[in-house]
């Protein structure tokens, strides 16, 4: 699922009808379940992508430190951090994989934020009800 699709869904679902607060309150569990399902799937996908990235990193690391995929014939000593920072990280296939991984992390973070808003939604509805009571002189 694309982040844009999730954002569009949340754009529709985040609206609270201030004239129907009781039904809005009843929708919270269904919305929470909907976004929790999406979050779980996307979190699992993120975990899979991280695993794939580690495998790809190892493969590309071996290619970068060797010549044409063969063990290096030299004894040049380069620190692991320097090698990863300057050579392996510059590998095109790793950059593509990292871009996909970063996009997936962004999607998971967005969904965490949506779930947090849903967890607080009942407080927002309660505040709206209390404000109406106060304005009406009942609270």
From TrEMBL:
Pfam families: UvsY (PF11056)
InterPro entries attached to this UniProt entry: UvsY
Protein name as annotated: Recombination mediator protein UvsY
Coiled-coil regions listed: 80-107
The organism of origin for this protein: Marine Group I thaumarchaeote
Keyword annotations from UniProtKB, A to Z: Coiled coil
Domain of life: Archaea
């Amino acid at each position: 699922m694309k982040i844009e699709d999730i954002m569009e869904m949340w754009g529709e679902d985040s609206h609270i009808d201030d004239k129907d607060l009781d039904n809005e309150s009843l929708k919270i569990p269904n919305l929470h379940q909907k976004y929790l399902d999406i979050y779980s799937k996307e979190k699992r996908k993120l975990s899979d992508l991280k695993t794939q990235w580690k495998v790809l990193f190892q493969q590309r690391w071996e290619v970068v430190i060797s010549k044409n995929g063969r063990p290096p014939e030299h004894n040049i000593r380069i620190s692991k951090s320097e090698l990863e920072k300057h050579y392996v990280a510059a590998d095109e296939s790793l950059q593509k994989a990292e871009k996909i991984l970063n996009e997936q992390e962004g999607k998971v973070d967005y969904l965490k934020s949506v779930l947090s808003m849903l967890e607080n939604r009942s407080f927002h509805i309660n505040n709206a009800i209390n404000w109406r009571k106060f304005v009406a002189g009942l609270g």
